[in-house]
């Protein structure tokens, strides 16, 4: 088969379309004939040599895909050759075929196109596991989503609104209109506005009950300041650095919680549990049309370098898909 390989770390042109060995399904795995994959910000880090795949994962980038099951390994029940699926991957999605543990498979939701389904697994599993399973966002609460225009952000806004939360989102001003349409009650231009003051202003001084953060160190202090009493801050990205100062006095006065998680390196049983939770709790919302894949554009898989340039410049809103045109 062919895949996007990274012979030497570097810029977008480090991505090379090349012949590689076909994957075989191990026990408990299936092989998917990939129809589409999607770019995640972590893929940019992997390309630069800063985010190696976890042990046992395919060497090629790609944390999710959609496609058709082409082979089923031993000990797999409930899935058959020919099933249309999408999947959470530890790597290897930028390829014509990929082997994946069956616990990370999801059916393509009714009403969603097979290509667009590649936009869902990573954001659905990340957002649901952090905002719902961990932070327990409840109806009537306020959710602050940093990077509202990202793949993660566009999904979190829709899920938060559908669960009955008031959603606030930070993004550059050009992205505000679409984010309001997705369900953000207030959008904050982080380039011109102090988000802490703005969150306080629109919540009558209360703050946000849950914050989904992708910035990390630089936002740690401000995020704690923006939390409501009993608030939960979940950090899933470090785009603003890995170190920050935590004012424990401010946190304990609010009885607040700070958590941080990474999905890719979690053990298989945890990924399978998250995938099950998404299938049970999120897929019905997708099938009802309340939460949908937000696709900025489709790029041919062999032109992954072009897709990486778009995401690196943050010129996109939602997800950039990589389509295997040979499928
Ligand atoms: N821990 C996990 O398990 C996990 C899983 C998936 C993703 N993530 C993380 O989640 C983040 C989003 O991933 P993605 O693939 O969806 O990313 P993406 O689509 O590439 O989006 C990145 C976003 O960052 C925003 N941004 C940059 N600086 C900002 C700032 N100072 N304040 C607010 N927003 C800012 C950009 O918004 P503007 O264009 O508006 O500037 C852009 O929308 C990444 O950091 C990724 O590593 C973590």
Automatic annotation (TrEMBL):
Signal peptide: none
Family annotation (SUPFAM superfamilies): GroES-like, NAD(P)-binding Rossmann-fold domains
Keywords: NADP, Oxidoreductase
Domain Enoyl reductase (ER): start-end pairs: 10-322
NCBIfam families the record matches: quinone_pig3
UniProt protein name: NAD(P)H-quinone oxidoreductase
Source species of the chain: Micromonospora zhanjiangensis
